[in-house]
Amino acid sequence: MSSHHFVKEQQEPAVFILKVEGISFETVAPLLEWSPTLLVAQEAVEVVLSWGIKIDVVLGTLAFQSEHRYLLEEQYPLRFLTVSSLTALEEGIHYLLASQHKGVHLLGFDHQNHQQLEEEIHHLDLTLVDGDWKYYPVKGGKFSKWFAAAKIRLLAAENQPVEVSNAEGPLLFPVCYLTQLEVPEGISTFSSTDIFWIGEQVRG
């Protein structure tokens, strides 16, 4: 089975671009390596087209669709999804779930609004890319990962306690909305009773 056929079975995380402010092609390119489904909100279409990459789904108003019907041929096969009562984010998530995608890289969503995604992360493996940082959720409980010595970020509800344990020992502290800390090279283990996010800097 070729990699392209594998991708079309929705095993590869989709890439969903809401806005392009603070997002460069260099950030997006590694996510496109296996030709995943690419969804783009109308505000980002012009810039994404300038990158010369294939768009699969455009989320926009009926007026936008009417003005950009040429995309149906230039980007064939392409699908328009109408954004009306739902936001582009909600419409795109519904589409991904209906088409049985397992995961998505969401770009152009403000990480400060991470709590708005709590419903979505129970249905999709969701990674949030905002500027030079990518964030992934830990859905309560415990999570371990090997890190190079680096700065990481923790996102959680204000004053939510998170415990971090690594070669430097255990540390329990309340997250002050966004907490940045240094982790040593090696395995770090994180635990909390509720959802929190770990942020890593994207290396260009």
Helix and strand topology:
Elements: H1 3-8, E1 14-17, H2 25-28, E2 38-41, H3 42-50, E3 57-60, H4 62-67, H5 71-74, E4 79-82, H6 88-98, E5 103-107, E6 125-130, E7 133-147, E8 150-155, E9 160-166, E10 169-175, E11 178-183, E12 186-201
Parallel strand pairs: 1-2, 1-5, 2-3, 3-4, 5-6
Antiparallel strand pairs: 6-7, 7-12, 8-11, 8-12, 9-10, 9-12
In total, the number of domains comes to 2
Mean pLDDT, rounded to whole units?
Answer: 90
Rg on CA atoms, Å: 18 Å
Specify the biggest β-sheet.
12 strands, mixed
Number of helices: 6
Share in β-strands:
35-45%
CATH class bucket of the largest domain: Alpha Beta
Summarize the model shown.
The chain is of the alpha/beta class.
Q: What can you tell me about this protein's structure?
A:
By secondary structure, the chain is α/β, with parallel strands linked by helices. The chain has two domains: 129 residues, Rossmann fold (3-Layer(aba) Sandwich), CATH 3.40.50; 66 residues, no CATH class. Helix content is 20%, strand content 41%. The chain contains six helices and twelve strands. Strands 1, 2, 3, 4, 5, 6, 7, 8, 9, 10, 11 and 12 form a twelve-stranded mixed sheet that branches. The relative contact order is 0.14.
Which features would summarize this protein structure in a list?
204 residues, alpha/beta, Rossmann fold, 2 domains, 6 helices, 20% helix, disordered N terminus
